[in-house]
Amino acid sequence: MKILIVYAHPERKSFNGAMFQEACRVLEAEGHQVQTSDLYGMAFKPVSDASNFTGLQNPDYFKQQLEELHATANHLFSFELKQEIKKIEWCELMIWQFPLWWFSVPAILKGWVDRTFAMGQAYGSGRIYETGFFKDKKALLSLTTGGPQDAYLKDGLQGDINGILRPLQRGILQFTGFKVLTPHVVYGPARMSGEEREYELKRWGDRLRIVADEPEFNVGKY
């Protein structure tokens, strides 16, 4: 299986970093082809603007969607974006590894989406959801939280984790056609013992060994 891992954490020695490294190790050992985008390591620019393109259709008034369509038709995406778009097109499964910050992804990962999920490349012409550009691909969110698991239950302090993740899983991934797998959540690793963290890494590795056979998760609509 061709797998892209998009990693968004500023510290490689963090638990997110350990999960990223474990995913690379296990998936390659299982014979999968793995490509990665370490966004902080790449110093990926999260701001989407005219620098996304090597040429503009209208230099006097910037409208991103129109420029994305123009760039798609005329091969005018910047070198950096071309490389990332190629990875998305190449993969059969995309994994995002990130900490839950302010009930969402870190800004660098949101910026990666803003820049790479371009009109004409990821959506457009009515191709959304079941008919989306990425309808033959799968996606999996792997994340950590600051709080404990009981805070992310339906009646918990923060609310249902699946509701929190719906803007990502429904509004980005399913919108562009991805079949979404059950999110992998590690709750409060900063408060865990070393043994507990080792257990969570093993649980992650065990899941990845059979991830190719997983069924689609029922994300639910808004």
Protein traits:
six-stranded parallel sheet, 6 strands, 222 residues, 15% strand, 6 helices
What would you say this structure looks like, in words?
With 222 residues, the protein is of the alpha/beta class. It has one domain (2-213): Rossmann fold (3-Layer(aba) Sandwich), CATH 3.40.50. It contains six helices and six strands; from the N terminus they run E-H-E-H-H-E-H-E-H-E-E-H. It has helices at residues 15-29, 64-74, 79-90, 107-116, 161-174, 194-208; strands at 2-7, 33-38, 93-99, 138-145, 179-180, 184-187. Strands 1, 2, 3, 4, 5 and 6 form a six-stranded parallel sheet that branches. Helix 1 links the parallel strand 1 and strand 2. The longest helix has 15 residues, at 15-29. The radius of gyration is 18 Å and the shape is globular. The mean pLDDT is 97.
Q: Find the CATH topology.
A: Rossmann fold
**Domains counted in the coordinates: how many?**
1
Number of DSSP strands?
6
> If you compute it from the alpha carbons, what radius of gyration comes out, rounded to the nearest whole angstrom?
18 Å
Whole-number mean pLDDT: 97
Poorly predicted runs are none
Question: What portion of residues belong to β-strands?
Answer: 5-15%
Helix coverage percent: 25-40%
Short description:
It is built from 6 helices and 6 strands; from the N terminus they run E-H-E-H-H-E-H-E-H-E-E-H. Helix 4 (107-116) links the parallel strand 3 and strand 4 (138-145).
Write the layout of secondary structure elements.
Blueprint (H helix, E strand, L loop, with lengths): L1 E6 L7 H15 L3 E6 L25 H11 L4 H12 L2 E7 L7 H10 L21 E8 L15 H14 L4 E2 L3 E4 L6 H15 L14
Parallel strand pairs: 1-2, 1-3, 3-4, 4-5, 4-6
